[in-house]
Sequence to fold (547 residues):
Amino acid sequence: MTNRKRASMAALTALLFAASLTAALMPLLVADNVHMQDLPNHAARAFILLNQDDPLLARHFYFDWRPEPNLGFEGIVLAFGPWLGHAGTITFTVALMLLLPWSGTIAVSCAINRKLTPLALLATPFAFNGAAAMGFVGFELGLGLALWAIAGWILLSRQPRWARLAYGLIASSLLYAAHLMAFGIYGVFVALWSLSLAAEDVRAAEPQMRLFSARGLGAVLRTFAARAWSDGLQALPAATVFFLYSEFSQPLSTVGQTPSEIANPLGRLKLVGRLVDAGPGSWCRALSFLSLGIIALGVILRRIKIDRRMMAPIAVFLVLFLLAPGNFNSTGHLGWRFILPFGFLLAASLRPGENGSSLTVPVLAALSVGVSVIANAVLISSYKDGDAGLRDIHRILPRIAEGSRVYFGFGDVDKSWLHSYAVGLYHAQSLIVTERRGLVQTLFTYRGQQPLRLRDEAIQNAPGNSVVFLAESARNLKAAGIDPKAHILGFDYLLTYGELTNAIRQNLPGDAMTQIAEAGDYRLFQLVTPERPENNLRVSERSTVGN
Fold:
């Protein structure tokens, strides 16, 4: 290759990386609001963490710090919040959610290929994935950090044991603190990578040996065991803390999963659409399969190939995606999350194939960047309903007294519409915390997941607080022997979104509800009880916003 051609290829590579970076950040750069289901709730928790000396917030909240996992987001808030402020910290966090997995894939690819290659950019469409759309902040941050840790492990995997152990102790402990699944993803990879290296060593020592024969498998397992005992020591500190202190360390639960969902892995295939989020489900599935199809076509035509050392990790994460239970105690949406390490590691494992040309890699990378741009354009166009809802709730907020307690719930709302076009409204009511310094019961205060706690034990211990549908929350309360009407009367206001059907109204304290504001599909009711005469309103105060 001539110097001129090398310079042209270098310029093309730089252009592809710049285009990929822009595409990965496109929702943050273009949209007025990046709609993520749980992000407002996390933003509210960050606001409380940065304003712990506020007397109105201190009346409702406190932090219960324990040596548990899933503290990655809190770490970012504590480290950068004083410098960036609340809004800046949330923007920075969203950028990290998009960039850490993207850059981690590039890092793993560099570690495998020992050079920078645009093939890693085939993961560009996965940057804004289903976990990002659902606002799984800790998981996304942890996944990105796990990919970076995996890259480091690959580079050190042939180094002396003491070097691997020193690195592993730091990496596994930090990943455990960031998010439990990040620790698990890293651990699974380390074990399977060691197995791949064991097979490589046996093949190098005895080239004629068939690895899948009884003798070959025995040799591989013996070699693997020799590495596993020392490499596995890195997990000991985190595992010890987990079993001693974590409230997560309970039996695996399948609550919320039907037997058919667990027994039939083919039912999970539609959730491949979580690899690429583009708003409406049909777009998600089409673009996810298209992204995987680009990789598959390149492999079939032998333009690219998968590094054989990565075969085992990729296969195991695919199996976990198909077979893992849907829930782990109070953590939902567990099984399909494994499609994300599968997708990112698949892209990172790619190498030029036998039939590839100098243009193969740039063309495939450009196609994937194009898919990402299309996905993000569709995604941003789907934000219209969510943006309208945010404008409506901002019109409601001034009618809520500062420091108040608000019970929120969706009425008769189509969940498929909410997921596809208004996912940002799931926890938009968390603005009550940041704008009115009040309490809303749907905040995440789960032991073993977040350190935030509510001082009112009746609210803190109510089942399924983060459930945002009135019908479902009423069923949860009744199942625990709690009267929904009496429970709601423990709040100052009731904020609803959507139609309140007769079935829903049966579980609301209708006689104590006085509507004081309305904007779009939001309705705000003040709750009036004999015990709180100060909540009684004069007729002139019963005005409505937005009529």
